Amino acid sequence: MLVVGTHSIHVRRFVQGLLDAGESVVLATDRAEKLAVHPALREQFVVDFGVRHVVATPRRLRQAIARWQPRVVHAHQANSVAWHAVRAAGGRVPVVVTLWGSDVLTLPQRSPLHRWMVRRTLRRASAWTADAQVLLQAAAALAADGPAERAWIPLGIDRPPAAEGAVRERRILSCRLHKPLYRIDAIVDAFARLPPACDGWILEVAADGPERAALERRAAALGLGARVEFSGLLAPEALARAYRRSAVFVSVPVSDGTSVSLLEAMAAGCLPVLSDLPANREWVQDGRDGLLVAGLDGLTAALERAIGWWQSGRWDAEGRPRNERRVEEHALLARNVGQFRALYARVAPPARGPA
Fold first, then answer.
1. Which residues have C-beta within 8 Å of that of residue 202, sequence separation ≥ 6?
2. Angle, nearest 10°, between helix axes 184-192 and 299-311?
3. In 3D, which of 319, 341, 347, 305 has the Cα closest to residue 147?
């Protein structure tokens, strides 16, 4: 397999899943990924996915295709990444394009050129995958044509560690990037407006991004002090601990597919408070599996309601086990990699060795 994608933990975990499943992989990213040494990782190289590299990037990808003769090229995101990939493949190798969200929901609105690029990419792909039906629907509406193979496959998460000995605290966790899309400022503001009865609760703002300094200043100006903890980018083990000790998980981006952080929070038993987005509705029914917030004006009330739900014990008795089962059945990486491999078999001829 030739996997093409931007530097990302999601791409890195996906490649590791393929390797663990017995696939041989060549990886092209825009920054080197720190992958464990594996005999089936044949090559890893760096390319620039900028649209200006209209000659150099496809040429480098074609060189890899000629050398390794992959059964399938798998491009992550229908933006310039997949655009370069389908041009390099030239119809000679099947290209699977995995939609991530903004590539089909917001990128085409930026300009006619972006819309043309995404549409052309979708039409030339051999298959689309997405972790939310809404993304497949958006791609179909945009392309007005495209491959017959369109599969709902979550990128999946690793099986969460056992929770024995974990003590759930009065803690709300936000772990999305500190970028405007994710509206972390609105989470801080909503937390600050919680009534005095919730004063014993802590908001942990994990992750990082260009807005972090401004968010820290905002929390200080609101007088939140030690009630807000900025814990930064957490290593996987530390993030797993953060999930296990948090009662509530909050994520309110403007747009989203199925976020890995939501799946991890569900698997860890957190009560989700989410933007009312189509992708989130595929996982959470409001008032049953978590809470959906239609507008930011209702975020404080939703957090207060989540706190009451958790403190009553009803969440642990009903919602938490249901969410944990859902992830176990549909969103574990090993299971999802098997679905991707079955898709490869449908779109590609039997594996060949290198020339």
1. 169, 170, 171, 172, 226, 227, 228, 229
2. 70
3. 347
Strand, helix or coil for residue 341: helix
> In one letter, which amino acid is 35?
L
* pLDDT average, residue stretch 303-317: 97
Structural domains for the chain: 2-156+333-347 (3.40.50.2000), 169-330 (3.40.50.2000)
**Structure tokens, 178:** 């500190």
Please give the full DSSP string across 284-316, using - where no structure is assigned.
--BTTTBEEESSGGGHHHHHHHHHHHHHTTHII
Residue closest to 138 by CA, chosen among 105, 176, 182: 105
pLDDT of residue 150: 96
> At 266, which amino acid appears?
M
pTM: 0.85
Strand partners, 174: 205
Please state the separation of Cα 242 from the chain's center in Å: 18
